[in-house]
Write the structure tokens for this entry.
Amino acid sequence: MSSSGTSSIALGGGSAEAAAAKSTSKRPKYSRFTQQELPACKPILTPKWVILTFLVSGVVFIPLGVICLFASQGVIEIVDRYDTDCIPLASRDNKVRYIQGLEDKRCNRTIMVTKTMKNPVYVYYQLENYYQNHRRYVKSRQDGQLRSPKDEHDVKSCAPEDTIDGEPIVPCGLVAWSLFNDTYDFTRNNQKLPVNKKGISWKSDRESKFGINVFPKNFQKGTPIGGKSLDPDIPLSEQEDLIVWMRTAALPTFRKLYGKIDTDLQAGDTIKVLLQNNYNTYSFNGKKKLVLSTTSWLGGRNDFLGIAYLTVGSICLFLAVSFSVLYLAKPRQLGDPSYLSWNRSAGGGR
Amino acid sequence: MAGPSRRRRRLHLSKIYSYTCGKSSFQEDHSNIGGPGFSRVVYCNEPGSPAAERRNYAGNYVRSTKYTLASFFPKSLFEQFRRVANFYFLVTGILSLTDLSPYGAVSALLPLALVISATMVKEGIEDWRRKQQDIEVNNRKVKVHDGNGIFRQEEWRNLRVGDIVRVEKDEFFPADLLLLSSSYEDSICYVETMNLDGETNLKVKQGLEATSLLLNQDSDFKDFSAVVRCEDPNVNLYVFVGTLALEEERFPLSIQQILLRDSKLRNTEYVYGAVVFTGHDTKVIQNSTDPPSKRSRIERKMDKIIYLMFGLVFLMSFVGSIIFGVETRDDKLKNGRTERWYLKPDEADIFFDPERAPVAAIFHFFTATMLYSYFIPISLYVSIEIVKVLQSIFINRDIHMYYEETDKPAQARTSNLNEELGMVDTILSDKTGTLTCNSMEFIKCSIAGTAYGRGITEVERAMAVRSGGSPLVNEDLDVVVDRSAPKVKGFNFEDERIMNGNWVRQPEAAVLQKFFRLLAVCHTAIPETDEESGNVSYEAESPDEAAFVIAAREFGFEFFNRTQNGISFREMDLVSGEKVERVYKLLNILEFNSTRKRMSVIVRDDDGKLLLLSKGADNVMFERLAKNGRQFEAKTQEHVNQYADAGLRTLILAYREVDENEYIEFNKNFNEAKASVSEDREALIDEITDRMERDLILLGATAVEDKLQNGVPECIDKLAQAGIKIWVLTGDKMETAINIGFASSLLRQEMKQIIINLETPHIKSLEKSGGKDEIELASRESVVMQLQEGKALLAASGASSEAFALIIDGKSLTYALEDEIKKTFLDLATGCASVICCRSSPKQKALVTRLVKSGTGKTTLAIGDGANDVGMLQEADIGVGISGVEGMQAVMSSDIAIAQFRYLERLLLVHGHWCYSRIASMICYFFYKNITFGVTVFLYEAYTSFSGQPAYNDWFLSLFNVFFSSLPVIALGVFDQDVSARFCYKFPLLYQEGVQNILFSWKRIIGWMFNGFISALQGIS
């Protein structure tokens, strides 16, 4: 009730004399902002504007798409699936037993280079149907432990791959445990093609996420052994395969960088790959592929961007043309209220 | 009227003053005292005594805050979590602390904390303001008796029941007080009750003679003691039942002795009072209830969308959980190996254990509901609140809705109805003070059967335009006002026959004299004399009344002083031609009310004759005339009809001489009735006064013009073009209402009028002869028939877009609002372009509003300015108060207050349209962005075998809703203008967008949602 007491806050009073005359005037102060009169761009979608916009988008997008597509096509990519081929015929009906067995798993592959590949040629391994993004998997790691030896006992999120005989595993967790362990050796014309495995991981990962003074401990000591073992004398920051692997992939089909070949590959070269087929993807029907690829300014081979540009550009052009035809053939007056939705049902309006 | 010289002026104790209760006998209500409901005992002047202590009544500390320091957190948190969305987020927040959580607990709790704390800060600030006010009020000082005849300053909050206080002039009363004595001899005092009922006129209170004789100065209180027994605290402002036991004697107490908290002492030097009710027991605080909270249609629909979203979330979670369960089961150890060995499912905890896949799936369901919580816009409510407050600021700051003359900008009192302003389908408007200025101008009168006054009213002008088509159409309104502005405010009368004293030369001079005297005497105005110029101005309850007193003054009958029992005025003596002062002794005032529709005074003139002077509405007055008082009846009736046609408010003036014996008898009964506090007090008084106001002699009639406000016709025209239906609910006569309708362009010449009334000869004859039931039956039948006829007419016109106007009077309305008939009435009324209900009571106004609201299901807006519109304002979806002349009551109960009717155009067409499109688009935008975000999360799940791994980083998840995506939405809600104000005016039809709720139809909402879904698909590909 008492809130009805008059409030004498002077809101306005523009000029000084007005303020003096009516110090308590409640006249609102004028400004274009408070009066909602700020200039604004309110384009009206007239046929001309619409057609022009579509036309311009079409004209810009189509060449862009062509350029992107060209760039993508310029990337040379060789993909070699080897998961089945590297199993001896005898073991093919039980691949899992083979891969879990102890026999020698060397395997020879031959890759034909059809077009010249400029260096650097990137070597990837591609896994399919592999859920690196599974929540249980993603969480099973301890970043603190990777960064600093102080935190090596902090393994609670790593279960079940956390400790062995009460001693912490470094690096702990399922991600590290399942480290990919196939290896590739390339020879061309009986000459070894060296694979550069330095600098294949993110610089930030090497420098700040994996400690220079953190060394693998108790790694792959339990059973079963998941994947690759690590040299306990090399700090984690230099274990680049691990660093690459630990950056978990977002999708169940993914490529990870294995290394770089710093020489050009000529068209017609035959490259022999000596492959250690160790990694078990057979139990979950995952595929394994070896990929050699160059890059362009757009990155790796990916036609999607170009195709998207081309599609949208063509649709725009098509719309521009069809609207023009419609506009010329059957023009109508702008701002005719009888076309308003609530007038249309009333049958012609007032 | 007050001054130091007045103090202690020797006046007679006025036992016959109209408000006096005198020594009324104990009515039956007083016998209740001591019983249930009447148990309060106040030991005056001994608040500390053991007897008083035992009573333990509450202190005078008043708390208007919602929270205390201790209860703020629990209570406001509780309020917050009553919202289903907030509660959901609380549950997910708690779950996020467990291992179920797909993301860090911070991600779930941070947005919730931000949203909750933002709302709590807002609540806190609002409450802090109230707290400041409380502190200010509670620490006000008042003089309190300390037991030794000395009064010292004390804070209000320390007052106890039974304390004696001394309140000085222009101070507020600190609690409900029993008036003991005042600076006036007869212990009356003047009280302003603006804070209570919004009425600006002063009310008179009077203490008991017993106490006022005893207590005249501070020292008298040293040995004073008395006991008051009275009713318990209650809400009734106009009734008080109690007794005062003083020195072995008991006196009845009524509301006349009670000074209510929050009213103000005026024109009185000081009063002494005993505290009866303190703090929350006081009547005003018992009365303060929260205004009915209104929620907008859009928000109610929004709730439904949120439930839909919940449904979606649970559906998606369910689907996801099933797939997850199946895939987890497949990880089972088979032949000593597991499929996805890298997950080590054989060593998994319960959440991923393939051996217990169903349980894992159930747990996953909870995880999923947390993960998909991004479908529920957590910050929606708080964003909408922010946006609405900002929108209200824009409305308040709109310079086009600022009225220079009264210095009043528009005032959005509640911000949660902004968008409803854009959806108004029907406007229900009061007439007086809303469409018109409510500054009455005396313009014509008919005395002794002769019509005087040459002024032309706006309605007459409009009528001339209608019939003759004279070129007054495009005239600037300001010019019209300037031209017709009267020289004297409230008086626009021109007639040389009776002005400047010429009336004495008229044939019926004696009647004229009586007429003018009646104008000068029969009223409740209080004069204020300007000391320097000697000019008299008046403070009156209503502008009509002021107009009469001013008119009397202009005619040479200057009312200049009112005492407790006398009215003094100057007039020209017929014989000597000189100005003489006359003092009429005022014996009784028979007050005006809406059922009586008349007001009378009983006076003793300076010759000692007793006179009853009466003025009232024509329908009640003509039937009260004496046989010999009907000399001018026919002529006057004719003039009154003419005046009504001209849109004027008319009153009939009549008088009679009263016999001494008759008066004594009347006075006794009247005082008894007044003093009684029983239920039927009003009826009793009505009956007694009714007997008195009979056999009157007609003098004439007055006509005052209630001018249309500036720009009303244009505004109504625009609103009609916007497709808004306008109903006018007025208490005026049908003719007046119709003419105002034409003047305000509510009715147009080409419109077909359907008039429903009960003025048929059959019913009239029944009224003269028949019984009550018979009349009722016939009336109902007649109304139904007329309604049916109207409907038939409407149906017949069908396709041809002929406009109809329905005009119905109050009596017919009573029947039309009955349950069985109201459907027909509503059908007919909604078919008409304009509806005018005349002669309608406040209750009927509210009922009509409810009928329209519930019957059509569309948004209704009621606009009014007076206390009689409060019901209507509260009943309607939006109540707009005109902050005009008639007090503050309408404004206090309104949602938005504007100063002039014409601002409604801008309020609805511009602000309403904008607010509606802003809020509607904003909510849709909100759901769009949340769906886009949520669907990407869901689709990503499909790639992670529904393991519950979020697609985004924790921080991105938590801040998406509250930071990253909230500002664009708020900006849209505050600034977006689909069309500029200019176009809103130019194409009023655009307003239909809101009325038909196109931007927030399910089609549109689903469209937005589908768009969100498509966007999500694009995002993921």
